[in-house]
Amino acid sequence: MLEARExxxxxxxxxxxxxxxxxxEPGGVTGLGGPSGCGKSTLARVLSLMLRPAAGSVTVDGxxxxxxxxxxARELRTRIALIYQQPRLAVxxxxxxxxxxxxxxxxxxxxxxxxxxxxxxxxxxxRDLLTRRPHEVSDGQLQRACVARALSLEPGYLICDEMTxxxxxxxxxxxxxxxxxYRDRTGAGVLAITxxxxxxxxxADRVIKFDQLIR
Length: 215
Ligand code: ADP
Fold this sequence. Notes:
Blueprint lengths: L1 E10 L2 E11 L4 E5 L6 H8 L7 E6 L2 E2 L9 H4 L2 E4 L13 H11 L5 H10 L16 H13 L5 E5 L7 H18 L2 E5 L3 H7 L2 E4 L6
Parallel strand pairs: 3-8, 3-9, 6-7, 7-8
Antiparallel strand pairs: 1-2, 1-4, 4-5
Helix pairs in contact: 3-5, 4-5, 5-6
The structure holds adenosine-5'-diphosphate.
């Protein structure tokens, strides 16, 4: 279980999260909805250990998080992967698609090689795209690479923050199917953040509206 308890986040004087608690269960798809600006992405960043809250605690399978971002314990950090809405903001534009997919493997000291090709196939990227750079592929292709990168270290929790909002319907359907297949295979827990109610209805087996979290 990935659990956030009584999380408070402030941006300057603005309180973005006020003692919010939230749980992502393994094996299921937890949906989180709510209007733009209510704090969903902020919660996603705390749950993926990318943002240190002003107060509150996060535990990963019962283990408390004591350090955040790059300083977080490696085995906790790699248990959770975050997929953002805008792939262009989530990649280094100098890298090739293959290098983007293999980044976590390289950081873990594992050679990408065959595994990169397998991951690319899993998300529907053809081999000819692997040598291209971000400006030479579409948003949908780049988001496929970001999903492959997120799955590369087999995380126990996958946080999809408006993962398909920018994409066409067929890419959306395919990437949701990829995440679902991954969950079926590994028993990972998925957090699906979307303001698209139709998608939420199809995807999540438990839906939480952000206003339910506010006390
Ligand atoms: P959502 O994902 O639900 O749209 P966010 O978590 O992105 O909401 O934002 C919650 C609130 O915090 C918004 O008012 C937003 O403008 C503000 N906010 C988000 N990120 C920052 C930041 N880095 N600096 C200042 N304010 C921010």
